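[User]
If only I could read backbone structure tokens as easily as an amino acid sequence. I have put the entry right below:
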Amino acid sequence: MFWLGYFLFNVLRWGSYFNDYWYSTKSNLVEFPIHIIFVYINIYYLIPKFILRKKYWTYIMSLVAMLALVYLVRTGLNYLLVTKDIWPEADSPAQFMVVNHIIAVVLGELYVIGFVTAIKLVIDWSIERRRNEELAKLQLSTELKYLRTQIQPHFFFNTLNNLYALTLKKSDNAPRLVIKLSDMMQYILYDVNSTKANLLEEIIHINNYIDLERLRFENRVDAEVDITGDIEDVDVPPLLFLSFVENCFKHGMKGTDKLEIKINFTILPTHYLEFTISNTFNPEISLKTNNGIGNENAKRRLNLLFSNNYVLETQIEENTYNLFLKIPIK
């Protein structure tokens, strides 16, 4: 379609110029097969073989040789099949192998080569860019799935440790913990199956986790969850906030008799969600321990999902650890 359109354009252009459309048709029928062959040799052979391998001088010499061959073939065929006047646009009849005629033919061929090659390179660049974008999306999706699979074993490992502690004590709370754990496993393994989860479901999931920890530590845990704003249609990355809640128990219970946790979700009119969580802890013990994979996973996920469009800040005030997170929501 491209070559047909280009051919018709040239026939009309030179036919109007010479006021002889039959001559223009015949000359273009002779020249266009040469253009096409030369262009495709350049695009699919010379450029890949020499330019992409940085053999620039070899490419230039090959191009010069091709131009010389094209001049001889094109001029000869025009002379034999179209007209004895091989350069009708000149002021006077041109002789074969005259410098000005050679330059005119070569410049014409270079124009065709440059024009078509530029189109081909733009198309290739567009296809490559789209392919890279698709690969980037695939990589993002794959990495997010990988990080989520890290979160799940991390969570189950901690919960099973809790269950093990209760069974050692032969606690009556062990069966209740098994039921809670079953509900959470159903949510994680079956209900959460995309990159977004309903915020209300996530909060219910967090409350279930806190209940599990209450079963283990009984009256040593005092936790409350507050919600400000309408969360009914708000979607968030699944299991994002759980890692922060887990860390409260992991580090807050060390060296203390009682753990106090305050969690707040605030929906802003600017389509952002503010999440704050604070917990009491023993700084002499907790600050010496490693934060584990929870926070690192959360930071990595935030970077992948929101780039720089989020805020994550932590602050320690006496015996209280505070975390503030702000993310965009739809």
Q: What stands out?
A: The chain is about 65% helix and 15% strand. The mean pLDDT is 81. The radius of gyration is 37 Å.
